[in-house]
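User: Can you help me understand a structure? I only have the sequence.
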Amino acid sequence: MQLEILLFLQDIANPFLDTLMNLISLVGEIIPVLFLLILYWCIDKGKGIKGAYALSFALVTTNITKSIFRSPRPFMLYPELINGQRLSTATGYSFPSGHSTISSSFFSFLMLFFHSKLVNVISILIIILVPLSRLYLGVHWPVDVMTGTAIGIASALLVGKVSCKMEEKKNKFFHFQVSLGFVFLFISLIISIMLDCGKIDEVAFSDVAMTTALISSLLLGFTLEERYVSFSNEGSVRARIVRFVLGMITSMLLFLVASLLPLPHYIGFSISLTATGIWATFIYPFLGVIRGLFSRSC
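Assistant: Let's start by predicting it. Here is the structure, written out as tokens:
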């Protein structure tokens, strides 16, 4: 049944749909990250934190699942599913779909925290279209996108519920969050060392190393910012635009410089990602408050 669905989509393939489906896949991957940075730095810090946690925990769940099942992608078993003119945006194993996880987690979060009919309509459309684009491109089975979508929605719901309780007891959870951040950093470095030594499957665990590094940077950065900075999103439209542009430029420059350090590939990548995450969530706001780019919360 799953193969029949993919073959049907292959039958209706054409150059216009090829371009459209690749664009939808790209939107489902890039837009969430950019919007969460805008939300955190410029609009609503609290919602930005919740969205980032929902997305990162959904991703680490998906990537760990991928490393366990190691399911081959459809086009690996049936090469006729891939049109030569169609771009493949797929790396790693098939089950579950990372793009479906990202889009469903982020847009479910939007529906939970932004009560708007327009937001709901757009979010539902994207939650449907991104998995469909992955099926059309022949890079996932239907069960992959359904599972990825379920993980994303569940993560958004879970973070929404847990975050409310944690906000009520911020001081109590401070040491727990910092400790958990270092645990994830340790896991990321161990996996990276094993990858660089060739001891584990690169395809299965490279994304796990990346997402555990990402979560460690969020846990450490957000927690330290809340305790020692506590910036406010207030400011003029011009100030918020400058804040976002400068944040993006400095974050990308830091990642580039850190990636040039003479370290083994995966160790260097994990350190670069962690450093950039902590910069974006803690150090940049800290320096921004000192320089007047951010204001402090009352």
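Now, to help you interpret it: The first helix runs from residue 2 to 11. The radius of gyration is 20 Å. Let me know which part you'd like to focus on.
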